[in-house]
Hints:
Layout: H1 6-28, H2 58-86, H3 88-107, H4 112-140, H5 146-150, H6 152-170, H7 177-194, H8 202-207, H9 211-221, H10 224-231, H11 238-245, H12 256-261, H13 266-281, H14 284-289, H15 291-298, H16 302-319, H17 322-330, H18 332-355, H19 359-374, H20 380-387, H21 394-423, H22 427-445, H23 454-463
Helix pairs in contact: 1-4, 1-6, 1-7, 2-3, 2-4, 2-21, 3-4, 3-7, 4-20, 4-21, 6-16, 11-23, 13-20, 13-21, 13-22, 15-16, 17-18, 18-19, 18-20, 18-22
Amino acid sequence: MTASSPMYLYLCGATAALSMYHLGHHLGELNTLPCVDSTPTQSYPTFLVAPTCIPMSALEYSTANAVLALGGALGALWAGRACDKYGRVRTMQVLNIPLLIASLMMAFATNLPMLIIGRLLAGLGTGGGSTLAPMYISEIAPIAKRGLLGVFSVLGLATGLFVTALVSFLWSDPQYWRLTILVGAFFCVLQLALLLVVVESPVYLRAQGRTSEAETVMQRMGAHEELAALDSPQSESKECKDAASGSGAAGATVSLSEFLTSRAHRKSLWILVLSHATQQLSGINVYFSFAFSILTLILPSAYAASLFLVIFDLYYVLLNFVPGLLLERYGRRPLILASMFCMAICAAVFTLAEKLGQPYVALVAFILAVTTFAIGLSSVPFIYTAEVVEPAAVGVASQVALVANNLGNFIILFAFPPLLRQIGSYVFVILAVYLLVMGAIGLRILPETKGKTPAQVVAELRSS
């Protein structure tokens, strides 16, 4: 029997989480881009044989930010299918190709089209990676550690945001924004190297008929409870077996059209769309992608805003260790609902404080909004992706979930800068109303999945 290794399990999880690091990096890389909606007032030295400024309007800046999410939707669609055909590990390797090209293209961009094409390529890689990372992590994680391993994805995202903010702060001269982007290429090379030593997902191996390899991987990951269940047909009810087998033969996968149209998948579909769309439409990337613009509304100088952003991103990294403990104690449903309602309150308080000239109250609301996001909305949607559908539908469910996620992100990234300029902090009232409505709907449809296998969850959804 192969001995289990917790450290190797964590290495595999961390390697997959680098796909989410790429997303965090690219979300924050344009935060301090110079010459947006202005004419350069001085000449700067070139850097990497390219000019410091790529002049652009506010609308063009919004477009450059938002195409990341459009590329993400396309990447999610491709990766959801590719991972079932080629495997999770091979697909993650392929996704690093557009990511590497994107970092190099943007670092040496001399005009806006080059920057936008680079952002689109980065979106392809990050969209596919954000589909695969939570899927792979949930498939290698034993049930007892699924909550802890589930936060690896958002921990990777938070780390990407922090490293990007730190590099931007340390090399704050305008011409060094290209260096911030180039750092992404290093992490592409790092992930490619680590992917050579991690295992393939046991779910994929079983779907390919490679049962003995899958069981060896499960033993190495410490999934002894799952192995015992496989060896004991009486351990699960008939409903669970039906849910696990889906509508086809063992090893068959669910098609996209079947997942979207079949009544058997209807509740799972709504749960995933609501949780993933709300993760982005909560405005979380407003707090990060446009943090510098927001903080200049309430802090006395650009330097103070930059310093606070670095400290804040480090706080967010540390904060993401907490949900792994809370998820296994309190469950998924209470945390995601608390996250929605608390973020709504914080968004409303931020607007009120900013309008009443209370910057420190606004700053506290800003911090609490991200804190409450971290305890639920940050990780539960990704965990749901693998827990509210049967294994045969995980690939296509990830496609649908991440398309909803990226389209929500596109709406936020594209619409927020113009709205911020037109109505100021009142834009956060829009976010508050949306979160209250989604929280009310979530009270009715979001399930608890803690301590249950996907087969058990699906069986409960179909019988209710």
